[in-house]
Amino acid sequence: MSLKTLTCLFLVILLLPLVVRAELTITGVEGELEQNVRAFATIASEPCDSEAWLVRRRFRALESEARKAIEPFGYYHPLIETTLARDGDCWEATISIDPGVPVVLRNVDIRIDGPGSSDPEFQALTNNPRFRRGEALRHNDYDRLKKALQVRAADRGYFEAEYAASQLDVWPDQGVADITLHFTSGPRYRISQIRQEQKFLDPAIVDGYLDLQVGAYYHSDDLARAYRDLSDSAYFGQIEVIPDVANAADGQVPVRITLQPGNRIEYTIGIGASTDTGPRFRSGVRNNRINQRGHRLIADLGVSTLVQGLTTEYRIPLSDPRREWFSLTAAYSNEETDTFDNEAQRLGVRWTKAMSEAWLRTLSLDASRESFEVGEDIDSTTSIVPAMTFDHKRSDREIFPRRGRRLGVELRGTDEAIGSSMSFVQATVWMRWIRSFGTRNRLLARINAGVTRSSDFNELPPSVRLFAGGDESVRGFDYNSLGPTDADGNVVGGNNLLVASIEYERHLTGNFYGAMFVDAGNAFNDTDFSAEVGAGLGIKWRSPLGPLRLYLGYPVSDDDKNLRLHLRLGADL
């Protein structure tokens, strides 16, 4: 369809008069009952200019439609009064309903026979208090239970399950109903075999994404988890993880996994901006499958006004590729800020392992060379730095969580005895915390702290020294502009860091949120701590990639009271 045709069609729709429907007023019932009556009432769909004979026909059916609408809720003897009038240019129908006393359950015979009789998942369904003697009859409850038992049986591997009896008998004149449900579960099947149908990846790599075990009871949740993990791997384009019920026998069912390769090469490109680094450009290339062992190559180039860098990573999956991998890394970066200039080259190895669903541990060893200028210090260093990092994260959602927390701890250091031109040990901790209260409010808090001990602070490059100030530190101050100074007043960084922030956020409209914040902290030496304070207001837009934040920060503790704009896009945790 051409653009001209679409435009004409859109204009015609806009010019069409709004269709006004007959008004239906319902009294005596509310909630689900009212909604169902309105859904059954055909007169409510008639436009005001309908023929009088048609509207009266719809009106004559209104009482029977209302009876049918409330019967599923157990009301079989309602008192109903209806009226019809012409109010100005349209029809107005009124229906008054006294639903009366609902039909109640008299005899309830719900039984699970077979091995499933002791399965707590079935018992949780059949022990519903809605099916006790004397409870009001609701047809939907009966239908839902019938379906739920069948679905639960299929999910848990009772592939031979069937109803020996299923009946709902209603005696409206007596005001009672009887339920008979006899469900025969049959045996619960176990997984007999896991068959892979793919030839492009080592089967051991695929097995690493599966928690399925031969001999274990079948459960659809296990297959769904296997599908998600395989999908997240980026190795596969099409994925099927299904029970081969046609070949099931003697309580055993094979599981068939059919895989097609995904895109081997992926390219990324993006632009952005922040007040710390200015406008930035990013591009990357990723080879998801270098060989049948699932090795990967990842390269990223980032260019901004202040920071330029290229990083590459060769990643090797280990026995559980979801939770453990080994990496070879190489990186080049050049950073030129108002505080320092630093050019660095780095080679490294990393062993990353998920210790649990929330904890990630990384052991690393980096060899680097850095040339830097900080204040009056101009030097070059070489270092071999072992490090250990722990990262803990929990949240109710990945983007814009309502509840979440994150804790990171890193310990790194080096010594001249292992070939470095300097000696230091450093521990850093970062914490973030998010809580919602009500439906429109969030509270966000963060703390960053660090401690460094070195043989000669002046030998340390900027990547080891600690600074404060900027979008993710003390807002209201320039990026890395806070910390101890030299004799000429140049900020040269400190041995220690302590920064804390509290932020209140409230939903305004749509995807927009307002915020108020207070930040405090500084980099310092020894115990000579003097906190700088920044405060301000902000507005956020909830984008698919995470919140885009625009803050106006005020340096409360600084003699220079100029406001500073902070712009940032990224996750909250």
Describe the protein.
It contains eight helices and 25 strands. With 573 residues, it is mainly β. The strands form four sheets. Strands 10-11-12-13-14-15-16-17-18-19-20-21-22-23-24-25 form a 16-stranded antiparallel β-sheet, with no helix packed on it. A three-stranded mixed β-sheet has the order 1-3-2, covered by helices on one side. Strands 4-6-5 form a three-stranded mixed β-sheet, covered by helices on one side. Helix 5 packs antiparallel against helix 6. The two termini are 45 Å apart.
Please provide a brief summary of the model.
The chain has eight helices and 25 strands.
Please give a handful of descriptors for the protein shown.
573 residues; mainly beta; Ubiquitin-like (UB roll); 4 domains; three-stranded mixed beta sheet; 8 helices; extended
Number of domains: 4
Remind me, CATH topology of the largest domain?
Porin
Output the strand order for the largest sheet.
10-11-12-13-14-15-16-17-18-19-20-21-22-23-24-25
Helix content: 10-25%
Largest sheet composition: 16 strands, antiparallel
Which class best fits the helix and strand makeup?
mainly beta
- Per CATH, the architecture of the largest domain is Beta Barrel
Mean pLDDT: 90
Kindly, what is the distance between the CA atoms of the first and last residues, rounded to a whole number of angstroms? 45 Å
Question: Superfamily at the CATH H level of the largest domain?
Answer: membrane protein fhac: a member of the omp85/tpsb transporter family
Question: Which spans have pLDDT < 50 for at least 5 consecutive residues?
Answer: 6-19
CATH class of the largest domain: Mainly Beta
Shape designation: extended
